[in-house]
Design a protein that fits this description.
Helices cover 31% and strands 20% of the residues. With 149 residues, the chain is an alpha+beta fold. β2, α3 and β3 form a beta-alpha-beta unit. The longest helix is centred in the middle third of the chain and has 21 residues. The mean pLDDT is 84.
């Protein structure tokens, strides 16, 4: 008898079932910041094919995201005059910013910084390797509306 009462009580609590077709948890957009270096030949501010590939990859990764900012910091090694290194790092930042614009990053104007040869040598005077570059940071945020970058 008690088993019958429990069964009747549970049957009264049953709710109708509807079939849910959508995802249980919305997948977050993969809109995380993208940071990468662009390397240059000695004394050059020309964007290489490898750099173009890196920018194209960043463009693909940014699809569906809102670009909130772009930072490009041009660097130079310690060879040569400080003024020339500063101007070279400026040209590198400008070249990368232009390559980003050509790849569709037009929603925000890139910040173009230049460091020249600052910190290109260690405290002991040794040259730091791989300073012929521009460091790129693309800041992304999720968006609910269709986005282009």
């Amino acid at each position: 008898m008690s088993a019958l009462c429990v069964a009747l009580a549970l049957a009264g609590c049953q709710t109708s079932r509807t079939r849910y077709v959508g995802p249980l948890i919305a997948r977050p957009a993969n809109c995380v910041d993208i940071d990468f270096p662009i390397y240059f030949e000695a004394g050059s501010a020309s964007v290489t094919r490898e750099a173009e590939r890196r920018i194209a990859d960043a463009s693909q990764r940014a699809i569906g995201c809102r670009v909130t900012g772009i930072d490009v910091m041009g660097l130079a090694d310690a060879a040569g005059a400080p003024e020339a290194n500063y101007l070279l790092s400026q040209r590198r930042a400008k070249a990368v910013a232009e390559a980003l614009r050509q790849r569709g990053f037009t929603a925000v104007a890139p910040y173009e910084g230049a460091a020249g040869a600052i910190n290109a040598t260690s405290a002991s005077g040794a040259e730091r390797p791989l300073r012929r570059r521009a460091d790129v940071s693309i800041h992304l945020a999720a968006t609910t509306a269709p986005a282009s970058h």
